[in-house]
Amino acid sequence: MAESSQQGKLDRNWQELLQELRVAQTGVQILTGFLLTLPFTPRFEDLEESRHAVYAAVLCCAVAATFLLMTPVALHRALFHRHARPWLVEAAHQSSRWGLGTLALANVGAVWLILDVVATGWVAGLVAGLIVLFVLVAWVLVPAREVKMD
Hints:
- With 150 residues, the protein is an all-alpha fold.
- Helices cover 87% and strands 0% of the residues.
- It contains 4 helices and no strands.
- 19% of the residues are buried.
């Protein structure tokens, strides 16, 4: 009976993770698609070399996030019917965490790059810093506080 209960818990965890990934994948796909089109716009060539480097770093983060968030699906396909659900759930959990972190970096970098071009450097830095602060509070501090309260 305990094994059946453990299997049910793994199945629920897997389903919850897949549902969360559906939400995250939409965001990362939109961001990555947007970033992939930027070099083909006329204004891109006018950017300073340093902004091209920032763009390249942001693009790499977005692509890494895309692959990290797709990894659970690839792992599931590779391990289908091989009774590896405990390992699969843990590996997918870790891949998703790294994917979300990388996606946060890509979003912060994209906002900084865009605001640095359309506004000023200090506005870009301020807004990017506020986004980092929000992510740290909402994604790290609030959950850590909640765990301590249980």
